[in-house]
Amino acid sequence: MKLHEKILTHYLSCTSPVDKEGYLYKKKKRNDTYHRRWFVLKANLLFYQERPADRHLLGVIVLEGCAVQHPESDTHFAFSLVFGPGLKTYRFAARDRQTQESWVKALHSASYCYLSLLVKDLRRQYEETIQQQGLGESHPSVSSLKQSTNSFLFTTMQQTAVVREGRSLSASTLLQAPSIPAKMVAKKSPKLWPRRNAYVTPLNGPAPLYGEWPLVGFDPLEDFSTLHDYYGQEVKKAREEWLKSRQKEEDHTDQDLIDLG
Amino acid sequence: MRFNEKELVLLSRQPSERAAELGMRGPKKGDVVKKRLVKLVVNFLFYFRTDEEEPIGALLLEQCRVEREDSQTFSIAFLDEAERKYVFECDTEAQCGEWIDSIKQASYEFMRKNLIFYRTEIHRLTGKDPLEQYGISDEARFQVSNGRPLMARDTSSL
């Protein structure tokens, strides 16, 4: 399949902001060695090259359908992007704990699917707030929101890697950032948001339409966990297979990440 | 440039609300219209030969301009090259309109703008930042833009 690279590189170099960038060590599959690469995260794309100044991109990872994992007990600041059974696992190592946690957090919220879930959740909160405050029909955005044909984005693949035993899934569970050790968390008071200005574009038309996984007729206000049950069968099966293969993998990962000779 | 092709192909196979057989013409001189199954999934436009499982190609729908060419035809221009367009022929005017709307709203950047709008509004109306409950308030990608760079680039791993 042809991925039109020029479009990607153009997007990378255009003025829209970069979400995160920095050096990480990327594990090469063939010989299990780590190579330092410069990574640039923009939207749901993770680009990498040898050095920041390089014009030549080594590659890009499309961050849809993957889960970010980082082992609890870890001395190598490692983390990975897992796409699921039969698919790729990208392994990384960071220089220190802070870098590791920062990348894990950034990658966790990087997918388009995640953003869709978030937008849907915030839209619901916004509508509730409008109603509660009695702003109702007089508020310009509400009527356009009501016209929206809500599609809900759901990744079975992301589910496969994220599902935990016995925990009922809700949107808030999926959206929750991965936990950071207590000492790393800097509690900040809520930021004071600047007044709305011309740079923040309000919604003009109907809610965004986007690819819906999978295509079923449903009530857009349906609880996420109900949808989860519907797809539970397929996911459960895939997850079992994945867990089996993961077990086998974990048996192999007790070696040094970097061979220091 | 390497990319996770298998995973992208799998992404292209997810059911999509916006998928149809359209006439598609490439941007180069001499490109002709060909019947393709065109499918919108997240911020990618995939196109297949009819009845083939693997797409021929994937177009990232960021920084592109979608325009109506005539009643049943729309175009997408990338790379700020207004003359180099991919042209798509639809069956009806209504279908054409739906595709234009869908593609315009498909980009990650469009979604981000919506998110920032809702976040700002909810905070304005309630005094609370709705992203705090998810622990993602400080993520660079969700910050309000004032025309400045969103946040100082995180170069902690330099």
Automatic annotation (TrEMBL), chain A:
Keyword Phosphoprotein: yes
Residue ranges of domain PH in the record: 17-112
Single Gene Ontology BP annotation: endosome organization
Entry keyword set: Cytoplasmic vesicle, Endosome, Golgi apparatus, Phosphoprotein
Cell compartment(s), UniProt: Early endosome; Recycling endosome; Golgi apparatus, trans-Golgi network; Cytoplasmic vesicle, Clathrin-coated vesicle
UniProt main location, coarse: other
Cited Pfam families: PH (PF00169)
Cellular component GO terms, alphabetical: clathrin-coated vesicle; cytosol; early endosome; recycling endosome; trans-Golgi network
The keyword Phosphoprotein is annotated on this UniProt entry: yes
Primary role: Plays a role in endocytic trafficking. Required for receptor recycling from endosomes, both to the trans-Golgi network and the plasma membrane.
UniProt family annotation: Belongs to the sesquipedalian family.
Protein name: Sesquipedalian
Lineage, highest ranks first: Eukaryota, Metazoa, Chordata, Craniata, Vertebrata
UniProtKB/TrEMBL annotation, chain B:
InterPro entries in UniProt: Boi1/Boi2-like (IPR045188), PH-like_dom_sf (IPR011993), PH_domain (IPR001849)
Family matches, as SMART domains: PH
Sequence ranges assigned to domain PH in this UniProt record: 15-108
Annotated GO biological process: endosome organization; receptor recycling; retrograde transport, endosome to Golgi
GO cellular component terms attached to this protein's record: cytosol; early endosome; recycling endosome; trans-Golgi network
Protein name, per record: Pleckstrin homology domain-containing family J member 1
Species assigned in the record: Amphilophus citrinellus
Higher taxonomy: Eukaryota, Metazoa, Chordata, Craniata, Vertebrata
